[in-house]
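Before a colleague's protein record goes any further, I have to sign it off. Alongside the sequence sits a line of tokens, each denoting a local backbone shape. I want your independent view on whether this chain really folds as the tokens say. Where you disagree with what is written, explain briefly why. This is what I was given:
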Amino acid sequence: MAFSDQADGAPDEPRLPAEVEVQDASLRAEIEEQKDKYLRLAAEYDNYRKRTQRERQDERARAQGELVKQLVDGLEDLGRVAHVDPETVDVGTVIHGADIAERKLLKALQGAGLVIINPIDQAFDPALHEAVGTEPALSPEDDHVVARVYQPGYLFNSQLLRPARVVVKQWIG
């Protein structure tokens, strides 16, 4: 019968040398340190992502606010024109007031990056124009040239908002 240090009678487990136990403890500590660094980095990245998203939203709201601020004058002018007493104001004054309001609104929108596409006598470009009809061209040089614009198109900061709706000359020759 063999004697054992353990009271429950289980066989002795082999003991590791002290330096292996120290190395094992240092590896565990290093793993915990790396895990902590990873969690901190993940939290930092998440905070960065949320902050940049919030900053983009704030910048977008500021830009929209600036545009609206520029449009308010033209809108107020248009409101004054729309609410004149037809009994006391002649038609020429109303038309002049509407023209001023239109110019103010266009100036504000063009300052923000709006470009009007009005391609009369220019080559038809399907990327910017929508053909709604054709008419005969008088010469081969006028083939695929815009004859009339039914509705102007608009670009905003190089993005097509609406193509110009046009009638295109077509050489039948």
Notes: Residues 1-5 have pLDDT under 50 and may be disordered. The chain has two helices and six strands. The beta strands are 114-117, 129-136, 146-151, 153-156, 159-162, 164-170. Residues 18-82 form the longest helix (65 residues).
